[in-house]
Specification:
Length: 243
């Protein structure tokens, strides 16, 4: 029996998971989720920016072992869509522009030595590392940019309140340590980027503050119409808060 060329061709499998846990500790998981969600919200109006984390990135077609799985990464000039893995050759050759690794005891050596070499060869423009516990990196937040094929350190700035801040040219954002916790900031507005949970919490707090303000403003003699205007509510919404 003669086999066709298609029958002789062995399908190459690119796994979407290695079966290992997403992160080994609560801090690593929490900051991974925060960074992915905060960046995804920040770039939500751009259809050419893909934000993901803990996803396999395959960079050589036909070689499944040529793979990395950054904790957090951002790719510009590709479609914003859901993926089970990221294959560079299917994305017009676009590799991550920004990568953040959450460093821990088990990943420190790999994050410090192997990954920078691999990411620089791939052409990743910026590589950041963050150690939530402060036990494995000094300083606990480090950034570098690619220059002539090698990573050069990004110098941190100390704000008037003593906060350490690194500017990412790729993202147009600042990475800051607030009481040891990593947070992204928009340097143009000074606004802190929030996760989905933080965004909802802020919304509820703002709504509660407005609700609490209405009785006090009524006691000061303002009409319901004046209160609605002051709190950027409709008259119906202001009345509803009093129910």
């Amino acid at each position: 029996m003669t086999l066709s060329a298609n029958q002789l061709k062995t399908e190459i499998i690119y796994p979407s998971s290695d079966g290992k846990p997403m992160a080994e500790s609560d801090p690593a998981r929490d900051y991974l989720i925060y960074a992915v969600e905060a960046l995804d919200i920040y770039f939500q109006d751009r259809n050419d920016v893909y934000v993901s984390g803990n996803l396999f990135v395959y960079y050589k077609k036909g070689i499944p072992s040529a793979v990395v799985a950054p904790d957090v990464f951002v790719v510009f000039e590709v479609d914003k869509k859901k993926r089970i893995s990221y294959k560079v050759w299917e994305e017009g050759g676009k590799v991550p522009n920004f990568i953040l690794e959450i460093t821990s005891a088990s990943t420190q050596e790999n994050d410090e030595e192997d990954k920078p070499k691999k990411y620089s060869l791939l052409g990743v423009q910026e590589y950041f590392q963050y150690d939530p516990t402060g036990d494995y990196l000094n300083p606990p937040l480090k950034g570098s940019y690619l220059f002539e094929g090698k990573y050069q350190p990004i110098t941190s700035n100390f704000l008037p309140d003593g906060v350490s801040s690194f500017h990412s040219e790729v993202l147009g954002l600042d990475l800051r340590l607030i009481d040891g916790e990593l947070r992204f900031f928009d340097p143009q507005t000074g606004r802190k980027l929030l996760s989905h949970k933080e965004t909802e919490q802020a919304r509820q707090e703002a709504e509660q503050a407005r609700q609490d303000a209405i009785p006090r403003l009524l006691e000061l003699g303002l009409s319901i119409e004046q209160i609605a205007s002051t709190l950027s509510l409709s008259v119906e919404e202001a009345r509803r808060f009093l129910e």
